[in-house]
Structure formats: structure tokens, C-alpha cells
Amino acid sequence: xxxxxxxxxxxxxxxRDFSLVWRRRGDALNPVLFAVMVVMxxxxxxxxxxxxxxxxxxxxxxxxxLLAGLLSLDALFRSxxxxxxxxxxxxxxxxxxxxxxxxILVHWLTTALPLIVAAPVLGELLxxxxxxxPVLMAALALSTPLLSLIGAxxxxxxxxxxxxxxxxxxxxxxxxxPVLIFAAGACNAAQQGLPVLxxxxxxxxxxxxxxxxxxxxxxxALRISLS
Amino acid sequence: xxPLVLWFHKLGSPPYFYRLAGRLLxxxxxxxxxxxxxxxxxxxxLAPADYQQSDAFRIIYVHVxxxxxxxxxxxxxxxxxxxxxxxxxxxxxxxxxxxAPIGAAFTAICLATGSIWGKPMWGTWWTWDARLTSELVxxxxxxxxxxxxxxxxxxxxxxxxxxxxxxxxxxxxxxVHFSVKWWNTLHQGSTVKLFGxxxxxxxxxxxxxxxxxxxxxxxxxxLLSRARVDLLELEAGKDWARQVALAGERA
Lengths: 227, 251
Hints:
The structure holds two protein chains of two kinds. Chain A is mainly α. Chain A has helices at 6-23, 30-46, 50-73, 75-82, 85-91, 96-125, 133-157, 165-191, 197-226. Classes of the chains: A mainly alpha, B mainly alpha.
């Protein structure tokens, strides 16, 4: 019996996941709405002074996007587990890390990319200085895939649990801390007129490493959770 | 079979380990107690006062050994987790999970004593220094491992998942260790060095080394005590566990 090539399996999985998201496209906007809400809370809490808000703007946008990503992580395997297709993925003859990498890619494209697109608007709400914006966008472009990859490994560990929300945050956030430090480090350096390349290069190096290792780790974690 | 390999295989069997640990425990607790008393007496009474901080420096006799233990126990837990995942040895799963709360306790002690010292010396309970922050992340990693372990119903699956998480978190260990070197922030660099001369007077150094040894024994004793209980719970249906329980009832 022939199973087709791994490429065709990946293509089928991508088409399936995209069409699933497309049929419930209203939900795809939820992370963006959440991030807008979080950012909106800060002027209420700290007062609307432009100078104060501009100082914390880049960090606030990063944290808001990180939290929105954290909340959307749970959906990565939830529906697949419920309808049993996750077990089929694990049982399939194709390499599981490759299939999971496709799933993570779709997840990043459908949840993190809208957030990145919304980031300039969020920054404008907090009077983000114009010259920091390109650095913030670069930091987001490098850090959000990293967050999705790290998050996917932790989600795979908690996949069978009924109330995993708080636990997932406890597992994921310590691992998110270094990413946030480097991303915010680049933005703060830009705000003070210092060179920004070093933290961005660190993020890029971590992303390159995670691109290779995270799908493997995610597959191993999933096998433990479903065993 | 090579006697050493044979012994190693025997060690992996829960009833054998249970009995061996039971015989070792009084010694380990005794050594830990003697070491702690000697180290604390040496540190709090015999060691001379610091020329700058006077008696306040003496908190290092708790702070530094706890900090070393927080890293050592994490490495121990991750190594056992690795063994548990690769070779599926039940004992390693138990040991890794029994080590996690002890490591978390040492990490918490390290953070607490550090901030008690920091208030009079740095003038603040807490600062977002690289060493402090990475140690705090280490505490959260421990708590994550413990949380994940208790969230899964099946004990063996739970310990495998938690062991995997512990392995991922090991990237934090070099960050904690080298944080004082990579970032030049408030926490001082390492004074006691494994290679090369330490930057501390020998009258102050020996109680510190005694404490470091005593906390190792304390960890070993605490670990074996916890592991014995966990093994009994895990193997509750087995005959040897029944016999242990019956013998305990008769005594």
C-alpha cells in the first residue's frame, strides 16, 4: 500500500488547516481584539500623558502580543484532539515533526501574523516613537515565530488535559522570558539611540535553533501525552 | 554479567532500592545534621566578621549553598528525566519527580536569603539583575515541572511529561551560572572558584564548603525519603509493597 510522499501529506495538512481556519474566520480576529483591549488598559491605568506612554509603548505592545499568543496557543491541538485527527497524525507513516511544523506554521500565519499587522496601530495608540517602529516590527517578526514554536512544545505536553489554561501559562511563560528580554532590549536600545543589531541577531539565532529543534521536541512531547 | 552492571540493574528494581535506601537513610540524615551544625557554627561563630559588612555577610553560609543546590538539583532532575525518557527506568522517573520540590525549596531559600541580605546592603529587597531574574525563572521552571506532574492522572505518564519539561528548561542552567559574567549588573561575580584560587579568606571558606557538603547530604536524605514513599505509592498493588505495609502494621 502506498501512502504518498511526505510533501503531499504536508500540502494536504496545510490545505486542511487553512480551510478550517477560513470557515471560522471570525475567530481569527479574536487575538487581535484581545491585544487591543490589553493595550487600551494601560492609558486608563497610567494616565494619558504621551511622554509616559511613549516610554513604555514598545514593551507594552510586546507583552500584549505575547499574552494574545499565549491565549491562542490552546487552540493549536484542541479541535484535532477532540475529533481524533491528532491520533491519526501521530499514527501516520510520515515524519511527525514535519507535520507538526506545518501545523505550527499555519497557527503562526493565522494568529501571530494578524497581530504583527496590528502592531503599528497598537504602537500609535501608545505614542510609540516613529523611529522605534521598524525595530519593533523586526523584533516581532523574529520573536513571534519563536514564541509559537516554544509554545507548541508546551501545548503538546498539556494536550490531553481538560483545564490546562493556567498550567500552560506556568509552563510557557518562564521560557518566554528570554525572548521578551531580547525583543524588548532591541526596542529599548532603539529608543535610546543605541545599536540594535546584537539583540536582534540573538533572536535570529534562537529562531534558527528552534526551527530545527522545536518540531522534534513537539513530536516527542505529543507522543508522551498521547501514550 | 559484570558485577557493577548487575548491581546497577538491581538498583533499578523498586524493592531493592527501597531496602537499600532504608539502610542508607539514618547515615545520610546523621551526616547532614552533623555537617549543618558544624558548618553553621563555623560560619556564624568561628569565621571572622567581614571588614565591610561585619556580621551581615554570614548569610552567605545559607545563601550560597542553597544557590549551588538549586542548580545541582535541577541538573540531577534533568539527568534522571533523560534516563527515564530514554531507558524508561521507573526509578529514575520517581527520583526526578522527588527531586523537584526539594530543588524548588532550595531555590526559594536562595531567593529569600538573597533579598534579606539585599535590603541592608543594596538598599532594596529586589532588583531586576540578571542573576536574580534567571534564578527566579529557575523557580518557575521547578514549579512548572511540579504543576505538570500533579495535573496528569496517570503517574508514569505524568512523570515522563514533567521530565520532558525539565529537559527543555535546562537551557536556563548556563544562563543562571554565567549571568554574572555575561551581564555586568548588581549581583557580584563568583568568589569561590573550582579552578584557580578563591577570592575568599580560608577562615571564611571552610564553613562554606562544609555547608555545601552538608546540603548535598540533606538533599540525598530528603530525596531518598521522598522516593521511598513515592515508590510504595506507585507499586501499591505489588506484593513487596504489601509486605512492607504489613510489616509496618506489625511493628
